[in-house]
Amino acid sequence: MDNVIDLAELKTMLGLADDTRDTLLNLIIKTTVQALRFKLALTSSETFPSDLSYIALEVCVKRFNRLKNEGMTSYAQEGESITFNSNDFDDFQADIDAWKERNGKNSQTLSRGCFFDPYKKRGE
Predict the structure, then answer these.
(1) Which of 31, 37, 92, 120 could form a disulfide with 42 if both were Cys (CB 3.0 to 4.6 A apart)?
(2) Residue 59 pLDDT greater than 60, yes or no
């Protein structure tokens, strides 16, 4: 697994001081990095770009804070209302797209096709 996110940094962001949720946090880190690797079109042999680790960290925080509210698009209680993005990476899509463009990972670069005319005679 990529060591993209430091568990201690994530715990600091979440205000957690003990180790009681480390197993859960490590799972959140693992799945978040896997999802971001997929979005970046990285193969298993490619190194995760450290300049995008902030995205993984921020998404881990979002996912942890949304626990027990999975699947909800909004939550309201006693005058407080919270709306969740349908995709945790939505806020970072422009950064993901820019990285993919700079690194030749955008879908237009990857999906070039070859066309031929089956009715064209040889030598024309």
Answers:
(1) 37
(2) yes
- For residue 29, what are the domain limits? 7-70+87-110
Q: Is 28 exposed, middle or buried (0-12, 13-18, 19+ CB in 10 A)?
A: buried
Nearest by Cα to 62 from 95, 94, 34, 29: 29
In a domain, 17, yes or no: yes
pLDDT tens for each residue of 60-82? 999 998 886 665 566 677 787 76
What residues contact 30, with CB distance under 8 A and at least 6 apart?
1
CB contact at 8 A, 5 and 29? yes
Rounded Cα gap, residues 48 and 56, in angstroms:
11
Task: Answer yes or no: is 77 within a domain.
Answer: no
